[in-house]
Design brief:
- By secondary structure, this protein is of the alpha/beta class.
- It has a six-stranded mixed sheet with strand order 6-7-8-3-9-10, sandwiched between helices. A four-stranded antiparallel sheet has the order 2-1-4-5, covered by helices on one side.
- Bound molecules: adenosine-5'-diphosphate (ADP) (2 copies).
- One adenosine-5'-diphosphate binds next to helix 4.
């Protein structure tokens, strides 16, 4: 089934007298369980597109249907609600709270979902276990390696069972070996049925996705299945 559907999405930024057509017309359809990498040169519209897909911003024109719901014209509050329910974010810089333990960081999204403290801790512990950090719950971010921090962030992204995991340059701050470990984790999540959307400028990282979409000048330049991965799946 289709989880993301955009029809002729455009985004115009206005800066004084100047207008920038960051997205011209992007129509794309992504099925539940797909693992897609978005690539493209700087300024091609990747961040703009991800912000719209992640319900952080709305398009100027066109429609965006997320999990059957038209989110194109929602207010900021409506978008925030959809975001909390549907999207798990993973960032280049991890974005963990430095004074909170791993367990507390992972449990944070559950506070808004109305779980009790013991339920939150139990679920967060299981999520940490699922990323291989079951014994690191009490550690604070500065007591963990970069790869472990990103695993904590991934556990946090998973905790509400989101429809989509949206990862923006998830290996941008990691060394090569650790980057591949994170890609193996993504591969496992994909194998479990998670939908993963990733932005990366690294070909070696994009290779892990089963579909690669390239943007250029606010348009889709190419959209291809990755034969290496697709035949194996
Ligand atoms: P990418 O992520 O591929 O580098 P962006 O989506 O960040 O591309 O940018 C696409 C175009 O939109 C660029 O020309 C950029 O300068 C412009 N742009 C992005 N965000 C804004 C903004 N908030 N205000 C004005 N222009 C923007
Ligand atoms: P398995 O290890 O059998 O593949 P999972 O790793 O999917 O199973 O789940 C292990 C445990 O983690 C389960 O008890 C499940 O309830 C919990 N869990 C899995 N995903 C999430 C999530 N997104 N949020 C909270 N708990 C989760």
């Amino acid at each position: 089934s289709i989880i993301i559907e955009t029809h002729d999405i455009s985004k115009v930024y206005r800066m004084g007298a100047e207008t920038i057509n960051a997205l011209k017309s992007v129509s794309i359809s992504i099925n539940k369980g797909e693992y897609v990498a978005f690539m493209g040169p700087s300024g091609s519209g990747k961040s703009t597109f991800m912000n719209i897909i992640g319900c952080l911003d709305t398009p100027t024109g066109g429609t965006y249907i997320l999990n059957g719901q038209d989110v194109s014209n929602m207010t900021d509050n409506e978008l925030a609600e959809v975001r909390n329910k549907e999207i798990g974010f993973v960032f280049q810089t991890f974005n963990l709270l430095p004074r909170q333990s791993s367990l507390e960081n992972v449990a944070l999204p559950l506070i808004y979902a109305g779980y009790s403290k013991s339920e939150r801790e139990e679920r967060a512990q299981k999520a940490l276990e699922s990323v291989g950090l079951g014994t690191r719950g009490k550690h604070k971010p500065n007591e963990l390696s970069g790869g472990q921090r990103q695993r904590v962030a991934i556990a946090r992204a998973l905790i509400n069972d989101p429809s989509i995991i949206l990862a923006d340059e998830p290996t941008g701050n990691l060394d090569t070996k650790t980057s591949y470990e994170i890609m193996e984790l993504f591969e496992n999540l994909h194998a479990k049925g998670n939908t993963i959307i990733m932005v990366t400028h690294e070909e070696d990282i994009a290779r892990y996705a089963h579909r690669i979409v390239r943007l250029r000048d606010g348009l889709v330049e190419s959209d291809t299945l990755n034969p290496d991965v697709t035949t194996a799946a």
